[in-house]
What we know:
Elements: E1 3-4, H1 15-23, H2 36-56, E2 63-66, H3 69-85, E3 92-96, H4 101-112, E4 116-120, H5 130-136, E5 141-145, H6 159-169, E6 173-176, H7 188-191, E7 195-199, E8 210-214, H8 229-232, H9 240-276, E9 282-285, E10 295-300, H10 305-314, E11 317-318, H11 334-338, H12 343-347, E12 349-353, H13 360-383
Parallel strand pairs: 1-11, 3-4, 3-5, 5-6, 6-7
Antiparallel strand pairs: 2-8, 7-8, 9-10, 10-12
Amino acid sequence: MNVYLDNNATTPLDPRVKKVMIDAFDLYGNPSSIHEMGRRCKFAIDDCRKEIASFLGAEPSEIIFTSGATEANNMVLKGVLLNNNLTFEGNHIITTKIEHSSILNVCKSLELKGVSVSYLSVDKHGIINIDELEGSICSNTKLISIIYANNEIGTIQPLENISEIAKKHGIPLHTDAVQAIGKIPVNVNALGIDFMSISGHKFYAPKGIGVLYNRKKHKLNPLIEGGSHEKGRRAGTENVLGIIGLAEAFRCLKKDMNDDFYRIKKLRDKLEKGILENIPNVKLNGHPEKRLPGTSNLSFITVEGSAILLKLDMQGIYVSTGSACQSELTEPSHVITALGEGIETARSSVRFSVGRLNTDIEIDYSIKNIIKVVKELRFLTAVI
Length: 384
């Protein structure tokens, strides 16, 4: 049996999304062309933009299609600062210590260009301190960028409260909402955000397509220059098939998200209970309540998480030891260490992320094998 429990890294393509994409293969025209084939593609993109805007509570003109959230994150962090001063030097931004690498690595790069960055700490559950956020704001703060739901531990940040602070000081607020979309309600106006990054492949759409929500009152300097695509905000011929697939994934979320939430949470809780009740010395990382419905990050003390991953892989169970974008690094998870945990706890962590296609039978199979694998590895560790 194969059990895919790495849905935070990427999700399989929903069959409904696959179908609409196959049906659209004949839309090969360039959306910028004025002939009929070009117009058909442009109209399709316009319809998709409206569909996605409706889901997010946004206006169609505020939706920018990108290759994914990494590009969107770069567009915001660099575009906002350049708009303010046409140079990076002397600007200040605020983010957190538990951001995705596509935020943290951009911040490190910006620091080399003269940008000052404040990295907010988090408590033992992964939630920022609102007072620390407000205390970090200074006269040259140009942007606050805080992840909505963490990709490793699933902890959800209080964005509404963060937004109040940002508005009070007149600072734009950006959130990397990659993990939140499709799992919890996301409305840009209710959250009070100005920019939001989204990747389609996290909610059963294809890879290589994403969205940047850009509140219309904020102008961004384009990261990719060239043609006038996306109203001059992102040059390059649009990924028509990807956009069509992305819009269909959003349509599916409208129908399925509520039911998915409760079914996935039930499976996640069953998995977690089966592990915690049968394996001693296991620690939950992240908030026990304020987290995504499918995410469970557990540290199996005295056992390397990578060893558990490899053993489970041999049983057809696919999990993660952290962010897929950091999988080639040997360093312990920066997210787990930011919680105040030691290196041993960080190295022994494994992330299980349940998705739409998982079943009770798969969870039973996984529990049985996780118990077996951890017992074997602890025995080997004790012998050595």
